Amino acid sequence: MIQENKNQIDTYRRKLLGGGAALAAAVTLGPGVLFTSVARAKADDEAVTSEVRWGFLIDTNKCADNCDKCVTACNDEHNLTGFGRPETDAQWIRTVTLRDKKSGHTTKLPMMCQHCANPPCVDVCPTGASFKRPDGIVLVDKHICIGCRYCMMACPYKARSFVHETITNQKEYSPRGKGTVESCTLCVHRIDNGEIPACAEACPEKAILFGNLNDANSDIAKRMTAEASTEIRGDLRLDLGVRYQGI
Amino acid sequence: MKGKSNKQQRLWLAAVACVLFSTLFSIVATAGAPRPDIPDAIKGEQCVEDTDFMRRNHMDLLLHQRDETVHKGIRTKKHSLKECFTCHVVKDKDNKPLTVSSPKHFCRECHDYAAVSIDCFQCHTSIPSNKEMGGGKTKGSMRGGL
Amino acid sequence: MKPITFREISGNSKGYYGLLAVLGLMVAAGLGSAFYMEHNGHWVTGMNNQIVWGIPHVFAVFLIIAASGALNVASIASVFGKTAYKPLAPLSALMALALLTGGLMVLVLDLGRPDRMIVAMTYYNFKSIFAWNMILYNGFFAIVGVYLLTMLNRKLNKYSHTAGFFAFIWRLALTMGTGSIFGFIVAREYYDAAIMAPMFIVMSFSFGLAFFLIALLATYKWTGREIGSYIVARLQRLQGLFVASVLLFVIIFHMANLYATQHHGVESFILEGNNVYSGLFWIGYMLLGTLFPLAICYAPAFRGSIGWTAAAAVMVIAGGLSQMYMIIIGGQAFPMEMFPGKEVSSSFYDGVVATYTPSAPEISLGLGGVAIAFVTLMIAIKILRFLPLSLANEKTNPHHASQD
C-alpha cells in the first residue's frame, strides 16, 4: 500500500519538475499519504537541493518513561554495537531526562544531532569533512575526516562520537571507521530512498515527526505553525532542524 | 684529501650494493610472487566500463562517485563501491561471501600483488548485503512495508 | 662592547651523549605510544567522547605557543633593536623551530587518522581556525627558517631586521590563532571568550622565554662557557614581567566571568571545586607557576643568579602546563548547559562532570614532543654556530665598554 503511494509520488514528481512537485503531490493525493509524501523519493541520479529542509518535531509529552525504542532502532540500523565501554562507545541518539530544579517536574526526550542550519561543527572543521548537505542534513565526510575532534569540542549538543576502535560488520549503507567522528545522519540513506529515519519509524507513540520544514503543507510544518515548539539552546541562533514540544 | 677519497669509495660501495640488492630482490619477487588470480564477476562478462580502463582508472571513478554520493546524495549504482563488491563477490565453500580479510577477495587479489593498500574497507563493508545477493529480505529489516 | 664569536659546542662529552640518549629514548617511547594508540584506537587512552582532547593536546598547545614565545628574544633584538639580546637571537629562533616541531608532532600523532595529513594539507575550510593554524604553523617554519638564515649567513645579515619583523608579526598571528581555537567555541562555557586570544599571546611570551632560559643556561653551564650576570638579570626581569602579564590576563578573564551569574557554575568549578582543576589552578598555576617565579625574578637577592633563574623557568613551565591542563581538560569536564534550570541525566554523561585519567601512552607521546624539541636543539648547536663563545658582561652590556 505504502509502496504504491510512493510510486505514485514518484510519477507525479517526475512530471512536475522543481520544488512544486512535492507540494503538488501532497495536494493531489490528499491527507492520507502525507506520512510518506514527506519522505518523497528522488531519482538516484538527482542531486539534493535546498528546496527541502529535513527535520524532526519531537513531542516530549508522548515520550514514554521506560521506552528507548528510538535508540535501539538507531543502533540496529547503523550497527552501533557497543564495546561495553560507555565512555567511548558511540551514541548517535540518546534519551535525556530533565528534572526541573524548582518544581521537580521531569521530562524525557530523545537527543541527537540537531542538524543546525548554521552548524558550529561545520565552521570549525579544518578539512571540510563536517558539512551540511543542501537539504539541511549535517554529515561527516569520513573520507576526509582526520579525526581531530574539533567538531566535538564545538558541538553544543554533544551529538558527536569518535570511533575509538576498529569497526567490523558495518551496514553497507552506513560506513563507520576507527579514527573518524560520526553522528546522526538523519538516516540519509533512507531519506534518499524515500523512507523516513529509523528512530521516527520505530517510535510507538509517533513522538518523532519527520518531514520537510520548507514545505508549508507538510505535516511537520503545519504542526509547527499550529502548536508551540522550541529549539534547544535557541540563544545560539543556530536555526535547528530538530524542534521540541513540551520542554 | 685522503679522507675525501675514502668517503667517495664508501659511497660507491653503498651504491653498488643498493643496485645489486634491488636487482636480486626484483628477480626473486617476479619469480616468486604468484600472478593475481582474478575471480570472475557474478553478473555477465563486461564490467561497467572497459576492463583496461577499469584497471587503470577505477580509483578515479570511485573517488568521483564518493563525492557525488556523500555531498549531493547521488546514488547511481554504476560507479559505486557497492556495485564493485556486489558484482565481483567471491564466495567460499559454504556459498558465503568472503570479506576483505581474505586474500581471495576481489579487491585484494590485485592490490596485494601491486602492494597498494586499500583504505575503503576500514569504514565500508566489503561484502554485499543479503538482499543484494538475491537472498530475499534482510533479517530484521527496518524497511517495514516498503 | 667587544665582538661576539659564535661557535658550535664540542658535544663530545659523556654528558652530552647521555642526555641525547635519554631524550632519544623519550622520543622513541613517544612514537611507539602513538603507534600503539593508532593501532588499537583511542579507547586505550584516557580520552573519550566527553573529554575529546586530552594530555597530548595539553602538551601540543603548550609547545606550540611556547615555540612562538621562544622567538621573543630574537624579536626584541631584531625588531626592537635591543643590542644586548642580539647574540641570543639565533638560539631563540632555533628554539622556536624546535618547539614547534615537538608540538606539531604530538598534535598530528594524536589525530584519529594521522595517515591523512595530506588531506589536511589539501582540503581547507577557511572558516576553521584550525585550518588557518595549519597555514600559520607551516608559514612559521618557513619565515623563521628564512630569518634564521639571515642571522647565520653574514651576507644576508642586512635582511635580518626585515625578516625578524615579519617573523614577529607572524608569531603574534600564530598564538592568536591558537588561542582562538578555544576562544571561538561558543558551545562550552569556559572557552567562549575572545580574551583567550591575547591571553594565549602573553602566555606564549612567558612559556617560550622559560624554555629558552632553560636551554640557554643549561648549555652555558654544561659547556663551561661564560654567561655574565648582566644578561641573566635582564632575562630574569623579562621573565618576571611576562609572568605578571599572564597573571593580569588571568585575573581579567576570571573577573569578567565572575561578574555574569551565568558563568558562576563553571567559575566555582575551576576556582573552588573539590577537584584536580582547582588544585592545578591554585597550587600549579598560581603558587608554583606565578608567585614563586615572580618572587625569584624580582627579589634583589636572586638578581642575576643562574641557578635561581633556571629554577624560576622550570616553575613557569610546570605552572604553564598546569594552566593548560586546567583550561583544556577542565573546560571540557564541566558539563555543557543545554537545559538551563534543569537537572540533566542520560546514558551519555549529560549533566555530570566528565572524568579523565590520562594513560601512560598519552603522557609518553606528550613528553616525546618535548624531547624531540631538545634533541633538535642539541644536534643543531653541535653542527652549526648558534651560540656565542662567551656571554660575559663585557660582551653583552652595551655600557660596559665605557668603563674600560
Structural class of chain C: mainly alpha
Determine the strand fraction of chain A and express it as a percent band: 15-25%
The biggest sheet of chain A, with number of strands, parallel, antiparallel or mixed sense and barrel status, is: 3 strands, mixed
Count the beta strands of chain A: 9
**How many helix segments of chain A?**
9
CATH topology of chain A: Alpha-Beta Plaits
Largest interface: A-C, 57 and 48 residues
Please give a structural write-up:
- The complex is a heterotrimer of chains A (247), B (146) and C (404).
- Chain A is 26% helix and 16% strand.
- In chain A, helix 1 crosses helix 2.
- Chain A is globular.
- Chain B has a domain of 72 residues.
- The C terminus of chain B is likely disordered.
- Chain C is mainly alpha-helical and 404 residues long.
- Chain C is globular.
- Strand 2 of chain A pairs antiparallel with strand 3 of chain C.
Using brief descriptors, characterize the structure shown:
heterotrimer, A: 247 residues, alpha+beta, Alpha-Beta Plaits, three-stranded mixed β-sheet, 9 strands, 26% helix, B: 146 residues, mainly alpha, disordered C terminus
Q: How does the SSE layout of this entry go?
A:
The complex is a heterotrimer of chains A (247), B (146) and C (404).
Chain A: H1 2-15, H2 20-29, H3 34-37, E1 54-59, H4 69-78, E2 93-100, E3 106-112, H5 120-124, E4 130-132, E5 138-140, H6 150-154, E6 161-162, E7 181-182, H7 188-191, H8 198-202, E8 208-212, H9 219-226, E9 242-245
Parallel strand pairs in A: 1-9
Antiparallel strand pairs in A: 1-8, 2-3, 4-5, 6-7
Chain B: H1 2-32, H2 51-72, H3 81-87, H4 106-114
Chain C: E1 6-7, H1 14-40, H2 55-70, H3 72-78, H4 89-109, H5 117-122, H6 129-152, H7 160-183, H8 196-223, E2 226-227, H9 229-259, H10 264-272, H11 276-298, H12 306-333, E3 342-346, H13 360-383, E4 387-388, E5 390-391, H14 393-396
Helix pairs in contact in C: 1-13, 2-4, 2-7, 2-8, 2-12, 2-13, 3-4, 3-7, 4-6, 4-8, 4-13, 6-7, 7-8, 8-9, 8-12, 9-11, 9-12, 10-11, 11-12
